[in-house]
Amino acid sequence: MIVILLIAAALITIALITLLNVWTFPRLRRSSTPESTAPFVSILIPARNEARVIGETLRCLLRQDYPHFEVLLLDDHSTDGTGTIARDLADPRLKVIAGAPLPSGWMGKNWACHQLSTHAQGDYWIFTDADVRWGPGGLSAVMAAVRRHQTDLLTVWPTQQTITWAERLIVPLMALAIIGYLPVIGTHYTPFSVFAAACGQCMIWRRGAYQQIGGHQAVRSTVLEDVTLARLVKAAGLRLRMFDGAGVIACRMYENWSAVRDGYAKNILAGYGNSIPVLLLATVFHLLIFIFPPIWWLFGGGVLAFALTVLGITIRMLTAAFTRQRVIDGLAMPLSAALMTVIAFQSIYWQLRFGGPTWKGRIIKQG
Question: Could you say which of 23, 202, 276, 344 is the most buried, measured as most Cβ atoms within 10 Å of its Cβ?
């Protein structure tokens, strides 16, 4: 009975945080074209073997109506022609930089971002991934939010585009983790680093703030560099804000089960402090709150089992609706939790076998 009470308490707490965030989480909104005095912006894109998406990503950025910006792309030793595709666009606002060899003690993306920062000329720096799509007016929208809230770091959670079954079952769980587990008012209005979070797919920095905390050099050996940078912002007493992409900024992260599995396995252990026991404990927790109730109900658990099952599915559906995902996919929440268990064990296997996850031909070992 104690276990049942703990499951009920956990689900009710997550449901209350979800409702609070649905009410308070800010969303991007398109704004009018900014005035000619708008600050100069550097858009910084680390890219390694992104030939499939980089052309359209850059064209979307170069079509933005914001008046003053440059786009810097760092070609991180791509073998698929990423840099060539970018250079062929031949736009004076676009500069393609050849990446230097990866130094010992650096994560690949962090090294790429650090190199980009040494070339940026803007008053504000936007680090964005090669697979993030900026809709019309997206750059104006984020800069309007930055100026309205006077942020040192503003991070956007892009609207995730999901097509295949694996994407639909797994990718939206990122939104569930943020909307269901992290009260945004704590992120915005308290100094506590436990509430710090950021999305590396889109981070908009005031130049001086980035330099003050040490930039990517300060997190050079960290897999979860985005969250760690957000914590440094909090620790420095700077202003952090999070926004939902609201369809203005979107991203399709992965396209099949193997890509989804490996992409999430790359980060999940780092999210639990690189502790295998903590990850295992978290996995058991999620099995208990999202899989045990429906199994218990199917085997005669009665009204309480049914209520807990419905509550878990409702949380998933509510976070899906808020972040523009398919609400109907929430019915498969128990299956999603089971697949996340597979991902957790993939991460553990990599850690034990290689000393860290493998990604784009590199073994990622944290210093």
Answer: 202
Q: What is the pLDDT of residues 202-232, one digit of tens each?
A: 999 999 999 999 999 999 999 889 999 999 9
Mean pLDDT of 301-312: 94
3-class SS string, 171-203:
CCHHHHHHHHHCCHHHHHHCCCHHHCCCCCCEE
**What value does the mean pLDDT of the chain take?**
94
**Is the distance from CB of 302 to CB of 312 less than 8 angstroms?**
no
At 17, list the tokens: 């945080």
Residues 53, 61: Cα–Cα separation, whole Å = 13
Above 90 in pLDDT, residue 30? no
Pick the closest to residue 71 from 48, 53, 91 (CA basis): 91
As annotated, the residues of the chain forming the CATH 3.90.550.10 domain(s) are 25-251
Query: pTM score, two decimals?
Result: 0.93
Long-range contacts, 279-285 (Cβ 8 Å, 24+): 279/344, 279/347, 279/348, 280/344, 280/348, 282/344, 283/340, 283/341, 283/344, 285/10
User: Whole-angstrom Cα distance, residue 329 to residue 165?
Assistant: 9
**CATH 3.90.1170.50 corresponds to the domain 25-251:** no
Q: Could you tell me which of 111, 124, 114, 76 has the C-alpha nearest to residue 96?
A: 76
Whole-angstrom distance, CA of residue 133 vs CA of residue 251: 6
Q: How many CB atoms lie within 10 A of CB 148?
A: 12
- Asked if residue 246 lies in contact with residue 159, where contact means CB atoms within 8 angstroms, the answer is yes
| pLDDT for residue 1 | 79
